[in-house]
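Good morning C.,

I know you're traveling, so I'll keep this short. The sequence:
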Amino acid sequence: MNKSQLVEAVAKETKLTKKDTEATVNAFIKVVEKELSKKNGKVQLIGFGTFETRKRKARTGRNPQKPGETVKIPASSAPVFKAGKAFKDAVNKK
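The tokens, ready to paste straight into the viewer:
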């Protein structure tokens, strides 16, 4: 499912217009991005899951175009999502 399909599905579920639904989805994404860009930022939705960042250490890698050459990869933060128990149970329901 891509973003436009998500907007269409949510609009159908909520009986809102696609325009209003798209604005809501975009606002949600913007708020999560803004919160995760803060130090120790975290968005926790009980029953769904948690969006947070994890620190990645600086490391040495290999240049794929020149396998003998090493490249320094700087430290960074990576966004992660951890599914909540209720969400996991809903997905695994048979």
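Safe travels,
E.
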